[in-house]
Amino acid sequence: MTSNPTPRLDAALFEVLRNRLWAINDEAVDAIVAVSGSPIATEGNDFNSGILTASGEVALAGPYVLVHAAAMGQVVQFVIDEFSDDSSIGPGDMFITNDTYVGAPHQPDVMVVAPVFRGDRLIAWCGSCVHQNDVGGPVPGSITVGASSIYEEAVPMAPTRIVAGGELLANVEAEYLGRSRTPELNRLDLLGQIEANRVVVSRLNGLCDRYGTDTVVAVFDGFIARTEAALRARLKTLPDGRWRHRGLVEHDGIEDRIYEIGLTMTKRDDSLHLDFADASPQAPALINTSRAITSSYAMAAVMTVLGYGLPWTPAAFWRVMDIDTQPGTIVDCLWPAGMSMGVTAAGQEVRTAVNICLSRMFDASDDPVLHNQILASCVSGSFTQTISGSFDDGSGFSAMLLDGLPGGSGARWGGDGPDTGGYVTSPAGLCTNIETNEQHYPVLYRYRKERPDSGGPGRWRGGVGVEHAYRLHRANGTATSTVFAHGQQPPTAAGVVGGEPGMQHTGVYQRSDGVIEVPPPKQVGELAVGDVYANLCGGGGGVGDPLDRDPAAVEHDVAEGLVTQAGAARDYGVVVGDRSATEALRTARRRKRIGRNPAPPLAEPSAGRRLSSTVIMADSHYLCRRCGHNHGPTTEPLVSLLTLARSPVAQRTPWPSARPGADRFEIRRLYCPACAVQVDVHVALADTPLLETAELL
Length: 697
Prior knowledge:
By secondary structure, the chain is of the alpha+beta class. The chain has a domain at 11-230. Helix content is 28%, strand content 23%. The strands form six sheets. It has a seven-stranded antiparallel sheet. The chain has a five-stranded mixed sheet with strand order 11-10-9-8-28. The N and C termini lie far apart (62 Å).
């Protein structure tokens, strides 16, 4: 039979095939969900799938946990390097790994990747990553609080062939499943991932039959090249400069030490340089990320914040950015450091740092279209919990509850953050349905409701988080409860442009005798029948000075139960139902900020080179855009020229002070000394110097 000649790849054909490839990737996800029996996958969407080029660049990714897809390319490239020397990669092969040093985000994230052959020609790769209930180690759920090295966590499985020529290798499957306390669920997920890869292989070969192999391969290359060109063009319109952010992670599972993650982001012409060298030395275990994971989180943040309106083509974003890390730090840990919680600790702070630096860059732009892309941080980390034990009939259970996921999303310029929106880099992530949890585990929920005042105050409010509470019942004795989080004391969902951070999150036990216990952010504890556990999710960061928020919007939030009347007065200077009292309170609040009557705003903003919404540079001086005040010469750090106020981190919620150590942190607010506009807000260790967050090149 003669083959059809390769058709010319015109614009119409490119669009047809581009959309067909996205549909194929979605079909792979459908296969995982159809086969998997794990609520983490079927309800929480804690997975992703992707299709890659023959060289291992991720051409497209699903809208689920983006860091899963971002990391897939590093895993495939490792497999190519390790298995190609003897031509041992063939049709029908698949490889499995949860190796965090190679690219798996943490050990419970299991990746299965497969080559796509056309005859004897390797034309692409495909794969998926699914979070597993348990992959071994000393504690159920595989998040090992108290580990001092990776040997005390679930030891990762190096990339290994698990399917050869289409046949599942029983000995490798047994090795993988034998590590887990939930082998039945893990096997269903594994079979779902294998089937997903087979779907992609079949569909891509079908496209090649119809349109020609060279045409299909050209579409992959076109995906990447076109997205890269659009991204570089966008970067060229943004100002060159450096922007900084510093994140904090408290408690490493052994002792309550503080780890810092500093980012300096430099933008020149059409490329980004992300320097994470300013990070604390690595922890013994639990909270670290490897360089591979840090890179994946950074790319995921760039893709979601800078890549608005562009295809989810990770390879294009890798091409415009480079990343520096210092080996032996919390963001580039070395063996045998553990990483079982890295995705909700150092990884989330990497994502937040990139998010905030990109938003500061947008704020320096005079282009209103780009300015409108300013985005505060979503909730960073969560008070996640694994529980395990046995039902009253003696059968066992082990699960990770996803109640910590529906925190608030960050506000944007011109709009409030989505309430209970979750992580910006997991747009299709979900919280498991209450009824599903009650069906599978011995828990009975008392409520799930929105948490008022948890959204970061700002001209545009951060989204609020959710509160959950359940009671243990139908259990045989006590259940093991492992909580793991960061951001219990220092707020981590940062605001921008003078917006405030979102409220912290925490977990609370109410024992059957009425005693209230607030666990540290990492703890292995117990739940007895009748005990109640509550999860209070944090909120997203705000954008802009809270005293600039429309009082009507605040009153609407109070009516909707998103802000309390006390919060309206404390955070926004709004007296509900009394506009004259509101104006008086706001005037008094501004006077208190700077110790004198504030200067009136100008009719038009000051002219000059824009540094941010509140500061411009003119004649080698910093000027306030709102009132025209001359802050001082640009040879001095701007932060040293503004009025500084320091506040405790428990200002908006008492929970940080429920445990010792809250006084290690503070919230720093920087104001214009003349008009009192809130220029910036930092969360910092109390004994550290001020951070200069922006400079133009």
